[in-house]
Amino acid sequence: MNKEEKTKNLISHGGDLAGSAIGGALGFLAGGPMLAGVGAAVGTFIGKTFVAIGSDVHDSYLSPKEEMRIGAATAIALSDINEKLQRGETIRNDGFFHGNDKKRSDAEDILEGTLLKCKAAYEERKVLHAGKFFSNISFDKEINSEMACYFLQVFEKLTYRQLCLLNVFSRIGNHLRATNLTGVRSGGELWWILQEIQELKDLNLIYQGDKNQKSKIVWGLGELVPAYLYNTTLGISFHKLFELNTIDDDELSEIVKLLS
């Protein structure tokens, strides 16, 4: 198989994780109707990025599960890029997709990083958000490669429930508990989720505020007030780039119950 065929083969293994994105991604690489109106140059350098990294990953040793996760992330990212282009959005033009004889493009670096994070993503629901991340930074020149690398590092560290927590805390005026947890028996599941919240605070993704969103210092898990936990500027960017708003409300219900 040549490099393009290897990339297509990788995408085709995305299975249920990728769903309909497989067709969109394969259509983009085929250069058929999906590319109508996008422009040959744009389609070429995006395609080259995915083929270069996809074929290289294809040639590495992957278990069936790893191949599915990576294939799904590739399909989701490429299909989402295609949809954005069809809507008339403009791909970034700051050299992100262009390399030279001494260094490959930043896009190739970040795409490989994204796929490798997905390879190890045993919480497979994270894969969708990783694919969306690469698609989104492909249109956002405010996110340079150093920032993208940091976002990926944080993403790898977070549990899927922490991604759900960032969704919950993005909703100003939620109906969570509006008093602190001092004196509340915090064993079991509540204790664990408070630990995850504390880690989000330590990573500067959320902060403890008051009802007016003014920041305040709290000491210990018992001082946390769930209703007044808010995403920081970094947390807002993370939420947007990984499209955490697409997490279904049904997946948030247990969190809301614990923190109410």
What overall geometry do the principal axes of the alpha carbons give?
elongated
- How many DSSP E strands? 2
- Please mark out the parts with pLDDT under 50 across 5 or more consecutive residues, or reply none: none
Largest sheet: 2 strands, antiparallel
Total number of domains: 2
The computed structural class is mainly alpha
Strand order of the biggest β-sheet: 1-2
Work out the helicity level.
Answer: 55-70%
Oligomer: single chain
Cα-to-Cα separation, first versus last residue: 55 Å
The string of secondary-structure elements, in order, is HHHHHHHHHHEEHH
Mean pLDDT: 90
Number of helices: 12
> Which range does the strand content fall in?
under 5%
Radius of gyration, in angstroms, nearest whole number:
20 Å
Give structural notes:
The structure is a single chain. The protein is mainly alpha-helical and 260 residues long. Strands 1-2 form a two-stranded antiparallel ribbon. The chain folds into 2 domains: 3-156, no CATH class; 160-258, Arc Repressor Mutant, subunit A (Orthogonal Bundle), CATH 1.10.10. The protein has helices at residues 3-12, 15-18, 21-30, 40-58, 64-86, 106-119, 126-137, 145-157, 160-169, 188-202, 233-241, 253-258, and strands at residues 206-208, 229-231. The model has no long low-confidence stretch (mean pLDDT 90).
